[in-house]
Amino acid sequence: MKKKIQRMKLYKLMFLSILLLGTSCKNNENKSEKSEPVAQAEAEPLPEMSVFQLPSSWTTQEGEDIQLEELRGEVLVMVMIYTSCQAACPRLVADMRNIQKKVSEEANKETKYVFVSIDPEVDTPERLKTFAKENEMDNDQWLFLRGDLEDTREFAAVLAVNYKRISPMDFSHSNIISVFDKDGVLVHQKEVLGTDDTQTIEAVEQHVID
Amino acid sequence: MIMASGFSQASEMAEIEGGTYIPLYGNDSLPVSVENFKIDKYPVTNKEYLKFVVENPKWKKSEVKALFADGRYLNHWKNDTELKSDELENAPVTNVSWFAARAYCKWKGKRLPTLDEWEYVAMADKETADARKKDGYNEFILSWYERPKSFHQEIGSTYENYWGVYDMHGMVWEWTADFNSVIISGETRRDENQDNNLFCGSAAIGSSDLMNYAAFMRYAFRSSVKGNYSIRNLGFRCAQDTNEEENSANEAL
């Protein structure tokens, strides 16, 4: 059902573009809120929609290599950023911190907040570690990951995060925070930057219990 | 099962001489450099894709994971190994997700072309490497956009372009490696300005507007799809760096 809706949105967008070309200056596609269907799967095999199906491996800010599947069992709040970013990223970091603060202490015991770099060439583990320290995120609650260029592109495709290098220093990118349940299924997404995070927090709380 | 591997020939691909070009639509209009590379002369067909799923069962329609391909994956196939009766073996395979297209190219020892590589090849008509200012070139593309079911054609049915590559326009839309590098929805001020420029640019539609419009449709399409979407008019072809040989012993996935 959801897929159908997305498909319809796609056609709508294409149709809309045709209309807009001749008639209007505004693109009011409201994409600020996306909720994915909630998957209930406590069973052993990974759900089909689990992000843990991705075979990619990642390096943490501690320099450890991990597979995403090792994160199974915790609710994950994820965002893609790059540490040299001057514009939106500090806001995204602040948004993540706010969410972490507002989520209950109980729920935070089973939740990880994950930053995935879209600039793995620059964002070495050392650099991620420094970034974590600077932002006072240097503990178990926070995880910083980098992968190779291809895996990063693939991961972004799963998250529907778009990004593009626009200069040697800068990227243009979607500002989306995603929540995954304990089996790695995407359960909530929100385009952020200072918008209301109530639903993101609710999603975390709910999936910690599930 | 005996499958012929080592069937690949260098002649399946065209050599593309790199250069710089200014993309028609994007976050900026600075020249982009494209290195020398090779690209498949034709889109991948149903027949070729069948071989891939037979050798890589996890990409069968009955076995593929929803994360990697949605419910419409290979929707025009009757089952795991047969096309529906009115479908053509040598038509481009469509209803394949980005993940699937990527896995196919990897299996061939190739990769998906980048968006810039694809656009670079696609700006050629029969005679010139960059035909984007020609009316005929733009009219062909726009009339294709209006034509239904253009996917129902055998590969090679449209024209051979300057590089010796067929069917870049007029048949199916194609996946690129970094399709998700397109940001159109106005997520930053910069992008919004771009959109406004495009939409409000001028009241009269001249040939450069048509050119922008044709490209805009492609970019808008790319920005609106997700990696697991399987769409009836979206196929793919593979590319390769010039220094690499086609992989005759296909990599198992």
Structure commentary:
The complex is a heterodimer of chains A (210) and B (253). With 210 residues, chain A is of the alpha+beta class. Chain A has helices at 2-23, 89-102, 105-108, 125-134, 149-159, 198-209; strands at residues 33-34, 57-60, 65-67, 75-81, 111-117, 142-146, 163-165, 171-173, 176-180, 186-191. In chain A, a hairpin with a 5-residue loop joins strand 9 (176-180) and strand 10. Chain B is built from 6 helices and 7 strands, in the order ββββααααβααββ. Chain B has helices at residues 46-55, 98-107, 115-122, 135-146, 189-200, 207-224, and strands at 13-16, 19-21, 32-34, 37-40, 173-174, 234-235, 239-241. The A-B interface holds A 3, 6-7, 9-10, 13-14, 17, 20-21, 24-25, 27, 29, 31, 48-51, 53-54, 87-88, 153-154, 156-158, 160-164, 166, 172-175, 191 and B 26-28, 65-68, 70-72, 98-99, 102, 177-178, 180-183, 185-188, 190-191, 195-196, 198-200, 213, 216-217, 220-221, 223-229, 231.
What is this structure's SSE topology?
The complex is a heterodimer of chains A (210) and B (253).
Chain A: H1 2-23, E1 33-34, E2 57-60, E3 65-67, E4 75-81, H2 89-102, H3 105-108, E5 111-117, H4 125-134, E6 142-146, H5 149-159, E7 163-165, E8 171-173, E9 176-180, E10 186-191, H6 198-209
Parallel strand pairs in A: 4-5, 5-6
Antiparallel strand pairs in A: 1-10, 2-3, 2-6, 4-9, 7-8, 9-10
Chain B: E1 13-16, E2 19-21, E3 32-34, E4 37-40, H1 46-55, H2 98-107, H3 115-122, H4 135-146, E5 173-174, H5 189-200, H6 207-224, E6 234-235, E7 239-241
Parallel strand pairs in B: 5-6
Antiparallel strand pairs in B: 1-4, 2-3, 4-7
Helix pairs in contact in B: 4-6
Search tags:
heterodimer; A: 210 residues; alpha+beta; eight-stranded mixed beta sheet; two-stranded antiparallel ribbon; 6 helices; globular; disordered N terminus; B: 253 residues; three-stranded antiparallel beta sheet; two-stranded antiparallel sheet; 7 strands; 8% strand
For the largest interface in this structure, which chains are involved and how many residues does each contribute?
A-B, 39 and 43 residues
Radius of gyration of chain B, taken over Cα atoms and rounded to an integer in Å: 18 Å
The count of DSSP E runs of length 2 or more, i.e. the number of strands of chain A, is 10
Structural class computed from helices and strand pairing of chain A = alpha+beta
- Strand residue content of chain A: 15-25%
Based on secondary structure, the structural category of chain B is alpha+beta
Tell me the strand percentage band of chain B: 5-15%
The helix/strand series of chain A, from N terminus to C terminus, equals HEEEEHHEHEHEEEEH
Output the strand order for the largest sheet of chain A: 1-10-9-4-5-6-2-3
Biggest sheet architecture of chain A: 8 strands, mixed
**Separation, N- and C-terminal Cα atoms of chain A:** 23 Å
- Identify the overall geometry of chain A: globular
Contiguous uncertain segments of 5+ residues of chain B:
1-10, 185-207
Mean pLDDT of chain B: 83
Helical proportion of chain A, percent range: 25-40%
- Sheet of most strands of chain B: 3 strands, antiparallel
DSSP helix count of chain B?
Answer: 6
**Overall shape of chain B:** globular
